[in-house]
Amino acid sequence: MSPDAPETQPAWDPEREEAEHEAGGGRGQRRWWLLGGGFVVVATALTIWFGLSSTEGAVTSTDIGFERNGEREIVMIFDVTRPPGTALSCTVTAMDDQYGRVGTKEQAVPASEERTTRVRVAVRTTTTAVTATVKDCAAVD
Predict the structure, then answer these.
(1) Where are the transmembrane segments (predicted)?
(2) CA distances in angstroms from 40 to 21, 28, 30, 63, 82, listed in the order given
(3) What is the edge-to-edge ordering of all strands in the sheet holding 131-139?
(4) What is the phi/psi pair of residue 11, to 5°?
(5) For residue 131, which of 104, 105, 93, 79 has the smallest C-alpha distance?
(6) What is the CA radius of gyration of the chain?
(7) pLDDT per position in the chain (141 positions), as tens?
(8) How far is C-alpha 114 from the geometric centre of its chain's CA atoms?
(9) What is residue 3's predicted lDDT score, i.e. its pLDDT?
(10) Rounded to 5 degrees, what are φ and ψ at 116?
């Protein structure tokens, strides 16, 4: 090579690339991270909002337990949660040791200003019941 010939740079210089990146090449990447993070926050907020709004006004029941009153009757104890002022009709099912239905009762739950109400229902059975459960509860017009 002659002393007057221009010095050529290699096609790829890792040190130069790193220096360019540290000099401010990461701003565009940072912007994408911020936009992505903002999108995740908005999507999470919308998911929570939709989830909460879909359960508003819903009627739910929670089995608490049962008591056996002899061989032909079982008392089911459960909580119902509903909008205040809503009357309900709940179906309670008693079952034997094979989970066969041995008794059913429709129980009216009067409207209340309380959101959650504890209910006790005595269900007469054809044979000895070993458990009971709330099949469903629905609002009554």
Answers:
(1) 32-52
(2) 27, 19, 15, 37, 33
(3) 101-109, 88-95, 131-139
(4) -60, -35
(5) 93
(6) 34
(7) 556 656 666 678 888 777 776 766 556 778 888 999 999 999 999 999 888 777 677 888 999 999 988 889 999 999 999 999 999 999 999 999 999 999 999 999 999 999 999 999 999 999 999 999 999 999 987
(8) 23
(9) 60
(10) -115, 135
The whole-model pTM stands at: 0.62
Q: 70-99 burial, b if ≥16 CB within 10 A, otherwise e?
A: eebbbbbebebebeeebebebbbbbbbeee
Amino acid at 72: R
| CA 113, chain centre distance (Å) | 25
CA distance 111 to 86: 5
pLDDT, position 9: 62
